[in-house]
Design a protein that fits this description.
It is a single chain. By secondary structure, the chain is of the alpha/beta class. It has one domain: 2-enoyl-CoA Hydratase, Chain A, domain 1 (Alpha-Beta Complex), CATH 3.90.226. The chain is built from ten helices and ten strands. The strands form two sheets. The chain has a six-stranded mixed β-sheet, with helices on both faces. A hairpin with a 2-residue loop joins β1 and β2. α1 runs parallel beside α3. The protein starts with a strand and ends in a 5-residue tail after the last helix.
Amino acid sequence: MIRVEHVGECCTITLARPEKANALTETMLEGLASAVTRTTAKVLILTGEGKVFSAGADLDGMKQGLGLSPAWEAASGAVAAFPGLSIAALNGTLAGGAMGVALACDLRVSVPSASFFYPVMRLGYRPQPSDPGRLAALVGPSRARMILLAAQRIDAETALAWGLIDRICPPEALIDTAMSLAEAALAADPGHVAALKRMTNGDAP
């Protein structure tokens, strides 16, 4: 349910459970974290199969306590710690806990039909600990509250205007757009990429 492909210095990880809208199970989260941790690629692209990036948590898993699993933080933490350039290529809607791994990426590109929502207020769950801070860092505190507290679903144009995503492109151009954004990082020294990434995170070079 997690497909990993290496082409040159680029690692593409695909959520491959389209029959369930790529809803995330604990096994998928563990596989994602493991794949990100193991790769030595310069660039990481995270995408989904089908028309939805991910509907969030697997519902059967939630009944068994998936919402409290440390696998969520392990997966988003692995993406955030990746030393190269990470890009979420959002092939469709991004929902719920799946937002964590996308927020942990350095850049996000999306198809026009995608929508974005994190329905923890309506469902009575809490977001994963790192997600609200990463969300607020991208869109600002008030807009983060619009998504989390007011339970607003936003479209791709709004997500672009708010800074949640960085580009909108046709579905057939999604991966090519991600690769075009990765060209400079792929051509650079890995240490230089890591240093610039630390600086944009507010860390010492």
